[in-house]
Amino acid sequence: MAYVGNSPALKYASFAVQHFTTSATTTYTLDHAVANENDIRLVINNVIQQPGSGKAYTASATTLTLSAATAGTDTMYCVFLGKAVQTVVPPAGSVTGSTLADDVISAQSALGAAPADTDEFLVSDSGTLKRVDYSYLKSTVVNRPNAQPIIINGDCSVSQRTTSTTGVTSTTYGAVDRIQLVNNSMGTYTVAQESLTSGAAYEAGFHNAWRIDCTTADSSPAAGDVLYPRYKIESQDLSIFRKGTSSAQSFTIAFWVKSNKTGNAQVNFYDIDNTRLCAGTYSISSANTWEHKVINIAADTTGAWADDNGEGLRIEWRLDSGSDSTSGTTPTAWEAQNAADRDVAGQLQIARHTDNDWAITGIQLEVGEYTSSTLPPFQHESYADNLLRCQRYFQNIADGTDKAIGMGQYWEAQEFIGHRVLSTVMRTTPTLEYVTSTGYYAVLRDGGADALDALTISSSPSSSSMISWYVASAQGLASNTKNRPGFFRTQNSSSKVGFTAEL
Fold first, then answer.
1. H or E segment at 476?
2. Among residues 449, 497, 450, which one has the least CA distance to residue 474?
3. Residues in CB range of 23: below 8 A, 6 or more apart
4. Residue 473 carries which DSSP code?
5. According to a count of CB atoms within 10 Å of the terminal CB, is the N or C end of the chain lower?
6. For 114-140, how does the pLDDT look when each residue is reduced to its tens digit (9 = 90+)?
7. What superfamily would CATH give domain 164-384?
8. So where are the chain's domains?
9. CA separation for the pair 407, 423 (Å, rounded)
């Protein structure tokens, strides 16, 4: 076979090079189309071949034709003369940002539609590019349809009534706002706002918790006895779950919990508007240790919530129950409410011994189904925003000595009337809550003070944003005071006046 010269010294890495696997043939396919054989240089066994008809080879388009067949032991490659750099596969790691055009991304056409689950995106993993399916990215995106947390005071920071209530034998809002203890003949308890200074919940950013301690046990509860904290939500605040529609959304409830007891426990979602029930379970693995729990509750296409300010949903953390609540099956799908199904998984039995306690904080409710690894972060609110949202349901007006209740005047001798604008619009027209005894309150007027030995206030709220009161005669009010203004205030450290519009 004709040839010219010795083996070539290839100096220009900018030329594209194609290596061939040889065999007993005269025809090969080129990687790039050429006008003729002069567009390439062919090297066989390290010797440059002469191009042209009657010479070593000819070429046209992507067909290379040799004048004589090669052998399988030959080495052969060709150089495409003048081929641009981009036709050459660059060495690994050689392409940098400065090499790319400025519009390498923006010049691309837009996707034009929502990505399919199988579409892939490039992400950097510690500097290494990796392909990621959109289905994975979609599952980790936080897409809250609500601007504020659904659960109010989920961090247990607001406690308007008191930080601790002892001797609790009945249903009460005893400590942390918005969490109510239900106690139906099942022992005696201290309910308190617990301050956290250590533990996993504290490390997660929570400084307070709702806590219950058993002080008088009920070791043999009657069939109808129950013990559990619950949280109530207005119906109109639940529309984001689309319950009762074909596009109903699932629920995720998450919280931190600690108890001296270990074992399984049940959390109920009780739809008050439609009398329907669904539940999930969690397990306390280590005693006296804060543990984070995430529970999924199924979507419900049956029974839409009303668009009003009435109670729509109760969330119940069952702590102990008599046999009326334990003889059924835990309803992991929505069902018509059945009392026998409301504490089937319960193993904590907090009411059975005075050593028992249980605490909760970091309560969050999310739209959709999440796991512990995909759960959105807890939405911490400022204390001021949290307090204002709590005051829709309860407002502490005066608590302690020399606290102002409001201005008013003597309507008649020994009859005092006044009003007060509330901090925010309450859920509904509120009712009065107060503590009274001898010398707890007084009306200051005309340079003196009328002490009230026994306070009775007839509250006649004119709306959910303002309240008025009428202090009856024969309570120590001075005579001959008609039309005189007065200042109504507390006189004792135990004095307490508040207004409630709880669900």
1. none
2. 450
3. 70, 72
4. S
5. N
6. 677 778 877 777 777 788 777 666 655
7. Galactose-binding domain-like (2.60.120.260)
8. 16-87, 164-384, 393-500
9. 16
